[in-house]
Amino acid sequence: MKRVLDLAALRSFVAVADSGGVTRAANLLNLTQSAVSMQMKRLEEQLGVTLLDRSGRGVALTGAGEQLLGYGRRLLALNDEAIGRLTDAEYEGELCLGVPHDIVYPHIPRVLSRFNAEFPRMRVRLESSFTLRLKERFARGECDLTLATEDRVGPLGETLATGQMIWIGAPGGVAWRERPVRLAFEAACGFRAPAQAALDAAGLPWTMAIESESSRAIEASLSADLAISASLCGAKPSYLEEIAHGGRLPQLPVYKINLYVSKADHSPPRERCADLLREAYGGFGAVRAA
Q1: Interval 174-200: pLDDT, tens
Q2: What CATH code is assigned to 7-87?
């Protein structure tokens, strides 16, 4: 059976070597001199070697002691790192992040990966929904941070980017040519009312052809060229495309990507997550004509 080093005795040995004597090591470790001496003797007996040269007035390391010192320091450092990682309560807990489903990709996975690397003991709960619902949850204190796609920024918010709303549909689709214009939106989608208002202002008739609570169902309908919808430039799914309507559909308004951060506390994890979001979405989209 393999022997296991006594880490307490090993810590005393390293303290003796670093301080130059048993008495000084005992003071550093808050132990009695006899306790340190007993630990040193036990360590030597366990290894079957002499670690300290006690022949002179001071304490010097033997060849075996010098060899053990390097190992001892590395073992103690690894031990202390493991204990600190598993027992330190700093930056524990949960952080809730809200993100509208249509701007989750491509940035949020990278943000979560970087945050986890810096705060491995924090649990991140990602809430993906519509802006209205996310802001309601944020107001109730159920989200620590949330992103929102809006035409203006509200109290406690900051604008990270602005982007043009665009018409989207199936690649090579023709549904956008139909009159009345066939629309597909979730009931709570914030882009629904602006798209309808733009069509009304242009004098174009429209019908809500597809309505669902599921974004997947809406996207499937768009892919099948059953209707068209609206998205932020740069945020459309890869299997849909911006409609090249040549002016036959009205231009949609510019929208903002806003960040709301709870002011309940200014913990480093929350502030760092906000900084990562600012960095990720800072160059999300440029204002341009559809």
Answers
A1: 999 999 999 999 988 999 999 999 999
A2: 1.10.10.10
CB atoms inside a 10 Å sphere around CB 216: 9
Residue 286 confidence (pLDDT): 43
Domain regions of the chain by residue span: 7-87, 92-290
Here the tokens at position 107 are 């940035």
Query: Cα torsion at 177, 178, 179, 180 (round to 10°)?
Result: -120
pLDDT digits (tens, 9 = 90+) for 47-57: 999 999 888 77
Q: Are 168 and 231 in contact (CB under 8 A)?
A: yes
Sequence-distant (≥ 6) Cβ neighbours of residue 96 within 8 angstroms: 124, 125, 127, 142, 143, 144, 145
User: Which CATH number applies to 92-290: 3.40.50.300, 3.40.190.290, 3.20.20.70, 3.40.50.620?
Assistant: 3.40.190.290
Residue 171: count other Cβ atoms within 10 Å of its Cβ: 9
The tens digit of pLDDT for each residue in 244-262 reads 999 999 999 999 999 999 8
